[in-house]
Amino acid sequence: DTAVSQTPKYLVTQMGNDKSIKCEQNLGHDTMYWYKQDSKKFLKIMFSYNNKELIINETVPNRFSPKSPDKAHLNLHINSLELGDSAVYFCASSHRGGRDEQFFGPGTRLTVL
Amino acid sequence: AQKITQTQPGMFVQEKEAVTLDCTYDTSDPSYGLFWYKQPSSGEMIFLIYQGSYDQQNATEGRYSLNFQKARKSANLVISASQLGDSAMYFCAMRGEGSNYKLTFGKGTLLTVNP
Q1: Which one of B45, B101, B102 has the shortest CB-CB distance to A90?
Q2: CB-CB contact of B89 with A41 (8 Å)
């Protein structure tokens, strides 16, 4: 009965590779997000989708591309991984276009070697 | 633009005592929401409490209460009767209408509860 789930939980890969992180929510929410938490624990929004439409696209390199096949899923694809991409990536979801509290997934710890 | 400031990188409290974690904010949105999240060492983000800018009363959720002072632009979290399990990183966050409701986070306060 997990509310917001992410796979994988850990991802270790080499520089230059392409990888994806998947997120699914079963809360019936209409809005989903990707956040990046850096090594100093600072959390920053990357993207947000509302009903499969991209509504927030912060200053993120083009190597990051979100995809929302439906309201319950939001995936993050990263091309040509760099050392600086190492971080914890959190998916979150909320209701009413973001007016309600956001519920976070468990996070995906990405390590780029 | 929205900004959240948490000036306490770390705080210590004795078990069973109360502790206040500071949060100040800045926004030009007339309507906004303030949130507190807890991140234990296991890494998950746990929603604790929410305060709307037009709410007349301070929010409370069990041992958590939010001391909202709109004129001072502060939204401090008060944890009463601290428990060892309260040891974690605490983040204050804000959501405004003018930013598609995205959450802007502060840098966090690491709370340690001593036995």
Answers
A1: B45
A2: yes
What is the mean predicted confidence (pLDDT) over B14-26? 97
Q: Give me the residue from A97, A103, A107 closest to B47, CB to CB.
A: A103
The count of C-alpha atoms lying within 13 angstroms of the C-alpha of B85, restricted to the half-sphere facing its C-beta, is 2
**Cis before A61 (ω within 30):** no
B49/B92 Cα distance (integer angstroms) = 10
Residues of chain B with C-beta less than 8 angstroms from the C-beta of A95? none
Query: What are the CA-CA distances from residue B39 to residues A16, B43, B61 (Å)?
Result: 31, 6, 17
Task: Specify the amino acid at residue B76.
Answer: N
The 10s digit of each residue's pLDDT in A16-71 is: 999 999 999 999 999 999 999 999 999 999 999 988 888 888 888 999 999 999 99
Binary contact (B95, A98; C-beta < 8 A): yes
B3 CA: distance to closest CA in chain A (Å)? 12
Question: What is the Cα–Cα distance from B75 to A30, expressed in whole angstroms?
Answer: 28
